[in-house]
């Protein structure tokens, strides 16, 4: 098993970051995420907690020989459960791959929360575990290393793409001049 951990500060308030999260895909930095489908949503009227289950369709750019060995194609599926708590100002997303999970499991948890010292910033903590199944025991270390490096790269690219989404959100949120202001 391999472990990835990362933290990042976004220079935006939590309410903006949590709202922009729903517009994260598609973005030009993450063309591998093809579709995001909402499977289920539940809102607790007492707590205001919103739980959303989504299915992400991803096109993996993996060498064909690896896909043949794994018995799959480029299209992969990931299940994500998001929990947003407006009172605690947290957004937690847990995801796991569905495709090829019998060979390789990648579990990720990302949490966005209000910065404890600066309410105009949002902190993000991200962690993932990569585990090769017993069928890959001879190559498990190599497969886990390859997958972890790919995950690290995709996480960095994903953060860049999310920053662009946040910048667009800020522009959209700014008041637009009216005819009277000319």
From TrEMBL:
Domain (PRELI/MSF1) ranges: 1-174
Domain of life of the native organism: Eukaryota
Coiled-coil ranges from the UniProt annotation: none
Record's GO cellular component terms: mitochondrial intermembrane space
Pfam families assigned to the protein according to its UniProt record, in alphabetical order: PRELI (PF04707)
Protein's name in the database: PRELI/MSF1 domain-containing protein
Organism, as annotated: Phycomyces blakesleeanus (strain ATCC 8743b / DSM 1359 / FGSC 10004 / NBRC 33097 / NRRL 1555)
Lineage: Eukaryota, Fungi, Fungi incertae sedis, Mucoromycota, Mucoromycotina
């Amino acid at each position: 098993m391999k472990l990835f951990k990362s933290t990042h500060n976004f220079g935006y308030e939590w309410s903006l970051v949590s709202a922009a999260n729903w517009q994260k895909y598609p973005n030009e930095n993450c063309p591998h995420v093809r579709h995001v489908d909402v499977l289920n949503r539940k809102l607790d009227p007492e707590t205001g907690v919103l739980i959303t289950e989504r299915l992400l369709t991803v096109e993996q750019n993996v060498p064909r020989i690896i896909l043949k060995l794994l018995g799959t194609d480029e299209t992969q599926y990931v299940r994500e459960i998001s929990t947003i708590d407006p009172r605690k100002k947290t957004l937690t997303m847990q995801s796991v791959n569905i495709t090829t999970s019998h060979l390789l499991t990648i579990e990720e948890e990302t949490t966005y929360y209000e910065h404890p010292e600066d309410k105009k910033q949002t902190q993000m903590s991200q962690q993932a575990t990569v585990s090769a199944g017993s069928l890959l025991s001879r190559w498990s270390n190599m497969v886990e290393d390859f997958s972890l490096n790919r995950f690290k790269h995709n996480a960095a690219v994903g953060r860049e793409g999310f920053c662009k989404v946040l910048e667009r959100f800020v522009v959209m949120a700014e008041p637009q001049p009216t005819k009277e202001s000319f």
